[in-house]
Design brief:
The complex is a heterodimer of chains A (229) and B (260). Chain A is mainly α and 229 residues long. Chain A contains nine helices and no strands. In chain A, helix 2 crosses helix 5. The termini of chain A are far apart. In chain B, strand 6 and strand 7 (83-85) form a beta hairpin. The chains are: A mainly alpha (229), B alpha/beta (260). Chain B: It is a peripheral membrane protein. Chain B: It is found in: Cell membrane. Chain B: Residues 10-255 form the ABC transporter domain.
Chain lengths: 229, 260
């Protein structure tokens, strides 16, 4: 085993690890926020909102992430420069990067899965708890904010943990649109040093470690409200 | 807001409610003066719970007029020919003045007992948090749960959970307390502790409407008892009359069956 290259490539590796974490954090946070709207649209009364949300979730869950990423990167990416004013705007330095499209694709994809899970969790909240909230005079919006969503999120937590881990392992796909994430760094090292296993082993350890951290964080969140077993 | 301090706490007139072709309530009227304890009895399917749920609009009645603490509930007739609340704001405001206690407690499991109790005063009524906590603590002490204030509902027995939910209902200073079979989901040995709390409230002079199967208890604490049969008031009067000398044959049968 030859790990002598580590010091030479440490900058690349650290940057790659940072990008992997950044993509995970962005897509999970923004994806979750979007998922809340998708879930509310599906359990709510508005039939138009429900169909839009259903269609969205079906599309993004029904197509490969790789294809979504490429459609966004090559399709949307080649269209953006033609929008008047965008190239001169302060957003352009961000929006021309592969990272932007990678984060966008991962976010949209994550939201679709998360939206469906959250919808199920919302329906799993016992009706009586929501009735109790109505009975004390809460408005629909307040019930959502104070009772329904907090309860649904807790019910869904074990599943969310699994989804975040899956999302972590979906991130290497961004290498295909020029983002040098951790996998990208390993790929480059393999090409430079002609070492087959060692760079892959190193990033494997990193992914396992990050998964461990994620499970620990979710464990803490789950324990925040004690349940009798 | 039209409120009148001399008005009855609750006036319900001619309530109808159907589910599809099945008419559950066929024109029920009920008046509760301040301090009245009205027990609603009857076999299952007689419409007792539906009546109670119509009073705080968890079910929207098809027809009927409601006056809560002197304030008329405003309805409009929808295109389907049924009643709809003209203003959900009004419904929400009125609900916050009605304390509902459910058969299955329905505490919010992601909050501690104290958080459950102060939730409505703080977030619905806008009471200051420390004021609400002070009040909640005294209510929890009253129902014998002060030492459980920081526990989560899952760690309480059914009787404790029901007492906590009574404290939750009391914390908004309700004009009327509504009890929907408060002891039906409890193990027999836990029924007593909950009834004791409810009895205490009755003795304080709280206005209450209570759906119950506890005949002896209803007889003891009620100022009036209402016997429902197939969505209609079959018998109403003081407990001595309804339990002792009912005019209706059905009521006689029901009371006789429940008294042993």
């Amino acid at each position: 085993m030859d790990f002598s290259w580590i010091f030479e490539y440490q900058g690349l590796l650290v940057r790659g690890a940072f990008l992997t974490c950044l993509l995970l954090a962005i897509s999970v946070t923004l994806g979750f926020a979007l998922a809340i709207f998708l879930a509310i649209a599906q359990v709510g009364n508005g039939s138009i909102a429900r169909w839009i949300s259903k269609g969205y979730c079906t599309f993004f869950r029904g197509t490969p992430l790789l294809i979504q990423l490429w459609l966004i990167y090559y399709g949307l990416g080649s269209y953006l420069p033609h929008i008047p004013g965008l190239r001169t705007s302060f957003l352009w330095p961000v929006m021309r990067e592969g990272l932007f499209f990678a984060a966008l694709a991962l976010t949209l994809n994550f939201a679709a899965y998360q939206g469906e899970i959250l919808r199920g969790a919302m329906l799993a909240v016992p009706k009586g708890e929501l009735e109790a909230a109505r009975a004390v005079g809460m408005s629909a919006r307040m019930i959502l904010r104070r009772i329904w969503l907090p309860r649904a999120i807790r019910i869904g937590l074990p599943t969310f943990a699994g989804e975040v881990i899956l999302q972590l392992k979906a991130t290497p796909i961004v290498f295909s649109v020029t983002v040098m994430d951790l996998y990208g760094a390993a790929y480059k090292i393999r090409q430079d040093t002609l070492l087959v296993y060692e760079p892959l082993l190193l990033v494997t350890v990193f992914y396992v470690g990050l998964t461990f951290v994620i499970t620990q964080v979710f464990q803490k969140l789950e324990n925040a409200v004690p349940v009798r077993r | 807001m039209r409120t009148d301090t001399s008005a009855p706490a609750l006036v319900v007139n001619n309530v109808h409610k159907s589910y599809g072709a099945h008419e559950v309530l066929k024109g029920i009227s009920l008046t509760a003066e301040k301090g009245d304890v009205v027990s609603v009895i009857g076999s299952s399917g007689s419409g007792k719970s539906t009546l109670l749920r119509c009073i705080n609009f968890l079910e929207i009645p098809d027809q009927g007029t409601f006056q809560i603490n002197g304030e008329d509930v405003v309805f409009r007739i929808g295109r389907d020919g049924r009643c709809h609340p003209a203003s959900w704001r009004q419904i929400e405001r009125l609900r916050s003045g009605l304390g509902m206690v459910f058969q299955s407690f329905n505490l919010w499991p992601h909050m501690t007992i104290l958080q459950n109790v102060i939730e409505a005063p703080v977030h619905v009524l806008g009471v200051k948090r420390n004021v609400a906590i002070e009040k909640a603590d005294s209510l929890l002490a009253k129902v014998g749960l002060y030492d459980k204030r920081d526990a989560y509902p899952a760690f309480l027995s059914g009787g404790q959970q029901q007492r906590a939910s009574i404290a939750r209902a009391l914390c908004v200073d309700p004009a009327v307390m509504l009890f929907d079979e408060p002891t039906s989901a409890l193990d027999p040995e836990l029924v007593g502790e909950v009834l004791k709390v409810i009895r205490g409230l009755a003795e304080e002079g709280r206005t209450m409407v209570m759906v119950t199967h506890e005949m002896k208890f209803a007889r003891d604490v009620s100022t009036r008892v209402m016997f429902l049969h197939q969505g209609q008031v079959e018998e109403i009067g003081p407990p001595a009359q309804v339990f002792g000398a009912p005019k209706s044959a059905r009521c006689k049968e029901f009371v006789a069956a429940g008294s042993h």
